[in-house]
Amino acid sequence: MSDLEALQSALGYRFRDTGLLSLALTHPSVAHEEGGGQNHNQRLEFLGDAVIQLAVTSELFQRFPDLGEGALTQARAQLVNRGSLAAQARRLELGNQVILSRGEESSGGRARGSTLADAFEAIVGAVYVDAGFEAARRTLLALLSEGGSAMAELPSLENPKGDLQEFLQAGSPEAPRYELLETEGPDHNRTFRCAVFHGGVELARGEGRSKKAAESHAALLALQRLRAAVIKP
Fold first, then answer.
1. Which residues, 6+ apart, have CB-to-CB distance to 217 below 8 Å?
2. I need a labelling partner for 205 at 20 to 30 A (CA). Which of 37, 39, 146, 155 fits?
3. 154: which DSSP letter?
């Protein structure tokens, strides 16, 4: 079985045009190395990002009719942030199949989270071009489910402070510290702004209608930034 055939089996989708799959795996560094004459996956990545956002938004909207916009936005961010997409790519072993320039490969590009997340998005975009939105949606949701991101239940939205503490304590016993920065507005409609710190460094700022809500918002933003930073080059 060829590498592309094995990948299609792992994806649960067989391309009509396997050239689209090859293009989705082609990193922009190839074009730069060859003077711009080589096509690469950035356009498919751009398309795939939009397809992923719409597919997951639609699924959450249908599954959880009682959730408001804020909770839906948080749920989507946790399900398909760059870190989770890179994890999906690693599960599919896309690092072994991406097509890189010599320079990008020598600098560790096959293991780079941003490269892997981009390739995953590009593959979803390629499925969309090959067979339309419904095929891309089914393929994506099946992959998320197989990778442990099924949407039968929402990701944890109720305890971002606890999630942040657990994330940080994987590398340090120090707990995050929250500080109320300011309040504004009349008593009946007050806005609180808080910051969260760890190791003397401010991680994020949040706001809410109570001090607790502001702390939770800051913790959620900090989590998103820290998880994204893990996959940056």
1. 160, 194, 206, 207, 208
2. 155
3. P
Q: Which domains does the chain have, with CATH numbers?
A: 3-146 (1.10.1520.10), 160-230 (3.30.160.20)
The answer to whether the CB of 191 falls within 8 A of the CB of 181 is no
C-alpha of 211 from chain center: 28
Strand, helix or coil at 160? helix
Is 121 a known active-site residue? yes
Q: Beta-carbon neighbour count of residue 131 at 10 Å?
A: 18
For the question of residue 49 being annotated catalytic, the response is yes
Sign (positive/negative) of CA torsion 7, 11, 12, 13?
A: negative
Cβ proximity of 43 and 129 under 8 Å: no
Is the predicted pLDDT of residue 75 greater than 90, yes or no?
no
Catalytic residue (choose from 45, 49, 59, 130): 49
Answering whether pTM is above 0.85, one says no
Angstrom distance (rounded) from CA 175 to CA 194: 16
- 117: enclosing H helix or E strand: helix 113-131
Q: How far apart are CA 221 and CA 178, in angstroms?
A: 13
- Active-site residue, selected from the candidate residues 45, 104, 118, 121: 121
Say how many CA atoms lie within 13 Å of 142 toward its Cβ. Answer: 13
pLDDT by residue (tens digit) across 25-70? Answer: 999 988 876 665 678 999 999 999 999 999 999 999 988 877 777 7
Read off the pLDDT of residues 159-190 as tens digits, 9 standing for 90 and up. 788 888 888 888 888 999 999 999 987 887 78
